[in-house]
Design brief:
- By secondary structure, the chain is mainly alpha-helical.
- The protein has a domain of 37 residues.
- 86% of the residues lie in helices and 0% in strands.
- α1 packs antiparallel against α2.
- The two termini are 28 Å apart.
Amino acid sequence: MKRTISFLSGAVMGGLVGATLALLLTPASGDEMCAKMQEQVQRVQVDVKEAAAARRAELEEQLVALRKPRKA
């Protein structure tokens, strides 16, 4: 569980750093820059929602497995 959270946070942080550097190093007008930043934020939001949904599904599967009666 700790590895998954660590991976997801690393992926999100890497994406944010990469997007920020790309935006800062690319010559563009203020409006273009704003549009690119909004697009990047939306991408990150989608990625985080997908990762959260996947993690939730994984945890729900584990909960179901833990609730099953154990054989003696």
